[in-house]
Design goal:
This protein is α+β, with helices and mostly antiparallel strands and about 110 residues long. It contains four helices and two strands, in the order H-H-E-E-H-H. Strands 1-2 form a two-stranded antiparallel ribbon. The N and C termini lie far apart (about 80 Å). This is DNA/RNA polymerases superfamily protein.
């Protein structure tokens, strides 16, 4: 296997302040195979299906410290298009303060 010197890549020569002098080595092993197998399993069991909705959110699996996988959903793009409440809901403590001053509370 021949080694490619980082100095021989043209983009590195053009922008030397962006790239390190030495490459740190190979990137870490990714669990792509596991993710693909898991996706197929979830699809076969009816838990997952492909969608093409503008209201969808990307789903990721992130490895936890104990080695198991955590399901993470990225709602940032969906939150950007969500219409916010113009009038926020009242806080419970404010409502209780109002009830405290009243003599009669009627329940329908």
């Amino acid at each position: 296997m021949s080694k490619l010197k980082i100095e021989s890549v043209s983009v590195v020569c053009e922008y030397p302040d962006v790239f390190p002098k030495e490459l740190p080595g190979l990137p870490p092993i990714r669990e792509v195979k596991f993710a693909i197998e898991l996706l197929q399993e979830l699809s076969d069991r009816g838990f997952a299906r492909p969608i093409f909705s503008p209201w969808g959110a990307p789903v990721l699996f992130v490895k936890k410290k104990d080695g198991s996988m955590r399901l993470c959903i990225d709602y940032r793009q969906l939150n950007k298009v969500t219409i916010k409440n113009k009038y926020p809901l009242p806080r419970f403590d404010d409502l209780f303060d109002q009830f405290e001053r009243s003599n009669t509370v009627i329940k329908d």
